[in-house]
Amino acid sequence: MPIYEYECDACGEIIEKWQKMSDSPLSSCTRCGGSVHKLISRSSFHLKGSGWYVTDYAGRKGGESPKPKSEKAAKKKKDKPSSESKKSS
Q: Which residues fall within 8 angstroms of residue 13, CB to CB, at 6 or more apart?
């Protein structure tokens, strides 16, 4: 549910209210009973989890190639004989 902000025309009180989009807007101040109007506020945006920045951009510099996850994986690639060496044996 969105949080809506209202400002009282009489006392200047700022009221934050959790409302459904289908709820009717507030019409009176909870402090003095004066009329209120809805404010347009900044919204917030949060990326949760590993996120696109970590997986796509963080830590990459220029022309660096990605490193293998472990040294064992790198050794396995070096130790595998090529298809040509199998044929000649």
A: 7, 29, 30, 31, 32
Q: Residue 10: what residue type?
A: A
- Measured CA to CA, the distance from residue 63 to residue 88 in angstroms comes to 37
Q: Is residue 61 part of a domain?
A: no
Highest mean pLDDT among 13-22, 35-44, 45-54, 61-70: 13-22
Specify if 7 maps to a domain.
yes
Examine residue 34 and state whether it is found in any structural domain, yes or no.
Answer: yes
Query: pTM of the full predicted structure?
Result: 0.47
